[in-house]
Design brief:
mainly alpha, Rossmann fold, Glutamyl-tRNA Synthetase, domain 3, Glutamyl-tRNA Synthetase, domain 2, 5 domains, two-stranded parallel ribbon, about 45% helix
């Protein structure tokens, strides 16, 4: 039997990082076993739909490199892949359950159900449907004639499953082993709502069966619903899938991960500049480890595909540690070649150039050769790809201001005089390379009777606006003679020794 897994989110807003992990685990498991990964949109709760959310889900998965084999966008042999387009299936199978005596109609109003719930809570009972409309033929007290009368009158109705009394329902879970549930704590779940839409419980079982899903890999929060699903499989006489319920994601204080304590939307992390490699790597480790004593923490998608297994997914909650994510991001930046980094820097730079002017030659600063040099010089110093442009803006834009504390510390009465003279020396330098610039600066300092540092720090400030960064001489070589001289002369005009003093 082919392995077929699915990610089945509801289009109710952003993509939760826990959802990304669920999608990833399903994708990795399917691909490792030569199977298919399916995206199905579960939009049966029409009151919670958010416009554009389905497109957002598809975009996030494609951004992360988790490409479905079958989906609303990709099609497939088991569609439609949107539940609201599959209502005829649910009605058909609901009718089958009623005919077999595994489901029945109920006609309470929402107000009656709320009153029932309040009364049970007041009595110290677990809120649960009281089976008022369970027909006599199924062991209830409602006469068939009254049910027929209600149906003919056309009053709103739902269909509820009839949970067998006094049985133990066993769920075999790859991660948690055998989990047992007493049927006495399981409610007669609504399967088909008054609006004709199914609840999650009916739709998920029908769709997983019809789409031939072999493994259901989902969050731990669905474990308590699984006995209802197991019963439905048994009612229909269908083969059950293999279940694997992955652990909850937790805040550092071990409370359930929520927006109250930080970002939980994948879209938020994309906007902040995290790469797909880092975020995928990070969520993979939220519950899974490679096992066998391995201490490896940095994985490519290919390495995850090779090593992932459900047997190495733990039961206990996984801590969402933002510092760990940031560390992983840095490791992935350092793993990329300078040429690969250049290709990622370019679109970010081009976006900045749409709103910000530059005095640097466009054909130079957008060239692969130039961006490769920037990548080489800064890859150990940035935390995000976008910082090659934002943190190191001096490679592309003139300094708009100069670091005040550094100017006060480094700018002396004679600094402008020395800078002007050294700028003239650079104009005539035959070979404008890092080594020749360094040699010229040391030679100039010696002839002036000053320390090299008396020039190095002011030159860095004049050219970059900041007191830190990569090797000064390599920055100067990359920027080129014209830009360096221009920036030195501009700093001389803008920074007055008397003002500093």
């Amino acid at each position: 039997m082919m392995v077929r897994t699915r990610f089945a989110p509801s289009p109710t807003g952003y993509v939760h990082v826990g959802g990304l992990r669920t999608a990833l685990y399903n994708y990795l498991f399917a691909k490792k076993h030569g199977g298919k990964f399916i995206l199905r949109i579960e939009d049966t709760d029409q009151t919670r739909l958010v416009e554009g959310a389905t497109e957002g889900i598809i975009h996030v998965l494609e951004w992360a490199g988790i490409i479905p084999d079958e989906s609303p966008a990709h099609g497939g042999d088991f569609g439609p892949y949107v539940q609201s387009q599959r209502l005829h299936f649910y009605k058909h199978y609901c009718d089958e359950l009623i005919a077999k005596g595994h489901a029945y109609y109920a006609f309470e109003t929402p107000e009656e159900l709320e009153e029932m719930r309040k009364l049970q809570m007041k009595q110290g009972l677990q809120p649960k449907y009281n089976r008022k409309w369970l027909p006599e033929s199924l062991g209830g007290t409602m006469p068939e004639s009254k049910i027929k009368q209600a149906l003919e009158s056309g009053i709103p109705k739902v269909v509820r499953m009839k949970v067998p009394d006094h049985i133990t329902i066993r769920v075999n879970d790859v991660i948690r082993g055998v989990v047992e549930f007493d049927s006495s704590v399981i409610d007669d779940q609504v399967l088909l709502k008054a609006d004709g839409f199914p609840t999650y419980h009916l739709a998920v079982v029908v769709d997983d069966h019809l789409m031939q899903i072999s493994h259901v890999i989902r969050g731990e929060e669905w474990l308590s619903s699984t006995p209802k699903h197991v019963l439905l499989y048994e009612f229909f006489g269908w083969e059950k899938p293999t279940y694997a319920h992955v652990p909850l994601l937790l805040n550092p204080d071990r409370t359930k991960l929520s927006k109250r304590q930080g970002d939980v939307a994948v879209e938020d992390y994309i906007k902040k500049g995290y790469s797909k490699e880092a975020l995928v790597n990070f969520v993979a480790l939220l519950g899974w480890n490679p096992g066998s004593g391995s201490e490896q923490e940095i994985f490519t998608m290919e390495e995850l595909l090779e090593q992932f297994s459900l047997e190495h997914v733990g039961k206990s909650g996984a801590i969402f540690n933002l510092e760990k994510l940031s560390w992983i991001e840095k490791q992935h930046i350092r793993r990329l070649s300078n040429a690969e980094l250049a290709q990622r820097i370019k679109p970010i730079l081009l976006e900045h150039l749409r709103t910000k002017s530059t005095e640097m030659p466009l054909e130079l600063i957008t060239s692969d050769a130039y961006l490769t040099q920037v990548a080489e010089q800064m890859k150990e110093r940035v935390d995000f790809i976008h910082e090659f442009v934002t943190f190191s803006s001096y490679y592309f834009f003139e300094p708009e201001q100069y670091e005040e504390d550094a100017v006060r510390k480094r700018w002396q009465q004679q600094t402008n005089t020395y800078l002007a003279a050294f700028a003239e020396r650079l104009r005539t330098l035959a070979d404008f390379t890092a080594s020749s610039i360094e040699h010229a600066l040391k030679e100039f300092a010696q002839t002036q009777g000053i320390k090299v540092s008396d020039l190095v720090h002011p030159i860095r400030l004049a050219v970059t606006g900041v007191s830190f960064g990569a090797s000064l001489y390599h920055i100067l070589e990359t920027l080129g003679r014209e830009a360096v001289v221009r920036r030195l002369e501009r700093a001389i005009l803008r920074i007055k020794p008397e003002a500093v003093a």
